[in-house]
Amino acid sequence: MLTKKQNLLETIKGGNPDRFVNQYEFLEIITEAPKRIRPTKGETILNEWGITLSWPEDQIGPFPVHDDEHRALKDITKWKEIVKVPSVEFSDEVWAPAIEHAKAVDRDDQYVAVFFSSGTFEMTHYLMGMEDAMMGLYEEPECMHELIECLTDYEIHYAEQIIERLKPNALFHHDDWGGQISTFLSPDMFKEFYLEPYKRAYKFWRDNGIELIVHHSDSYAATLVPYMIEMGVDIWQGVMTTNNTPELIKTYGGQISFMGELDSGPLDVKDWDAKLIEEHVEKACTSCGKHYFIPCLTQGLNFSSFPGVYDAASKAIDKMSKKMF
Amino acid sequence: MAKIEEVKANVEKGKAKLVPGLVQEALDEGSAAGDILQIMVDAMGVVGERFSSGEIFVPEMLMAAKAMSKGVEVLKPHMAGDSSTNLGTCIIGTVKGDLHDIGKNLVAMMVESAGFTLVDLGVDVSTEKFIDAVKTNENVTLVACSGLLTTTMPAMKDTVAALKSSGLNGFKVIVGGAPVTEQFASEIGADGYAQDAGSAAVKAKQLVNAA
Questions:
Q1: How many domains does chain A have?
Q2: Antiparallel, parallel or unpaired: β A111-116 and A27-29
Q3: Which of A7, A171, B26, B165 is the most buried (most CB within 10 A)?
Q4: A63–B179 C-beta distance less than 8 A
């Protein structure tokens, strides 16, 4: 039996996997690594970027607050005066749990993965709100290019620290680039603003020990796949069924792999249904096949919003492995 | 090209800096303010169709809405008492338990551009707040409920049920958002469903005109 890592490599290289890669099993994500301050449930905080984040009691996660009073960056032309890039240096004490976790991983079996969130695209929204960030691309393109470069520099500085401390060999990178049925930006505009900065960031990670880049965008982004390949993404995690994944595999398999097809929307619900999850897993596995595909809930980490859903999907994937391998 | 046609073309292209001047020139040329407003509404209809078909994306839609909004500012002093394009008041909000506002804001812009007077209640809106808004605003013809989280779908169901059983009338309820489907909309008793902001504006007009 192949190790989790070997099975992953056979899958994404079109070799001879002996089972489906089961969701995030190949990644040991070092979540203890220091990252952006987040509120806990019930809190509203001002984070180190000057972004107000609120997590009301009855919600499943925090959100940036973008009303006139709280929006961090109200005028993109003044971004250099307003945006204060936080330090990426943390004490040994802060790093200690992450280092311990990374050391404990069997690197023959799994990748030691670091988690980076939010990517440059989402960060512009966090700072400015969606509307201003989107219109800024038309109205103040030079400023937007500068801000995106600055955010990319920040990512690289953070990468320097985390690479030195943890010696990871995989990156799990969040940046949502679309909604269910379309990308937020046209592919041309995405290319104009985000391709080169992403190439620069991902090259840095790769040049410094990262062997595997997994990019999360739980959205439609089929039209951006050529750019994902160009920027060096190995696996696009979060691919929703709206992308026609079997067709993407036919077109791009061998250059990139696709992880998802189990849309969290209908499956990860309060009254979740194991039978429905099994049906979706069966459809995903039979339609996407054994190569360049990893069945996975589209949510961007190795858990579900409702307890039991992630495990039920894993169980159903094991069942399909027995059937198809 | 007549100035009024230039207004239409430049709203469609999202030329927010050019449109106010063109609207003024159209007025100077003798076009009626109501006609200029109508042509901008038509332009936003085209923008909505292009968005729905994937020909344009969020930034282009936002720029078009901004262009129209800038044009309307020039028109306002000339529009007193003109209600030719007014489809009534639309109350919009993201339902309780959900703080997402991007989709809701896009729908708000498109619905306003289609000729509704807009009352945006924001995000995390309780059932009571929706009902109060229907009571306290004049000529409410539409209530639009948005939700992005599967976890808030029950709140959407409760909101629609409360609106329908409130005894208030004269308005239709439209719902939308990532996890919402036409089937779900129908199951919870909504009058309409739209998949995106462009089709929301079209559906909103249909619902109100059919009432």
A1: 1
A2: parallel
A3: A171
A4: no
- Which tokens is A91 given? 């004490």
Cβ distance A182 to A220 under 8 Å?
yes
Where in the sequence is the domain holding A94, given as residue range(s)?
4-34+90-116+168-324
Beta strands in chain A (DSSP E): 27-29, 44-46, 52-54, 63-64, 111-116, 170-174, 212-216, 235-239, 257-262, 293-297
Q: How far is CA B177 from the centre of its chain?
A: 14
- The arithmetic mean of pLDDT across residues A259-273, rounded, is 92
Q: How many CA atoms lie within 13 A of A281 on its CB side?
A: 29
pLDDT digits over B37-77, tens only?
889 988 988 998 898 899 999 999 999 989 998 998 898 88
Chain B residues whose CB is inside 8 A of the A181 CB are 195-196
pLDDT band at A173 (very low <50, low <70, confident <90, very high): very high
- The enclosing domain of A104 has a CATH number of 3.20.20.210
User: Angle CA(A234)–CA(A177)–CA(A49) in degrees, nearest 5?
Assistant: 105
Domains recognised in chain B with CATH numbers: 3-83 (1.10.1240.10), 86-210 (3.40.50.280)
Which residues of chain B have a CB within 8 Å of the CB of A265? Answer: 150, 178-179
Going by C-alpha positions, the residue among A279, A259, A261, A277 that lies closest to residue A269 is: A277
Asked whether residue A77 is domain-assigned, the answer is no
Q: Residue B92: which H helix or E strand, with range?
A: strand B89-94
Given A134, A179, A180, which is nearest B59 (Cβ)?
Answer: A134
| pTM tops 0.80 | yes
- Closest by alpha carbon to B54, among A181, A218, A176, A227? A181
If phi > 0 it is left, if psi is from -120 to 50 it is alpha, else beta; for residue B49 that is alpha
Residue B82 is predicted with a pLDDT of 56
CB atoms near residue A253 (< 10 Å): 18
* Helix (H) or strand (E) segment spanning residue B193: strand B192-193
Domain-located, residue A315? yes
Residue of A54, A60, A183 with shortest CB distance to B57: A183
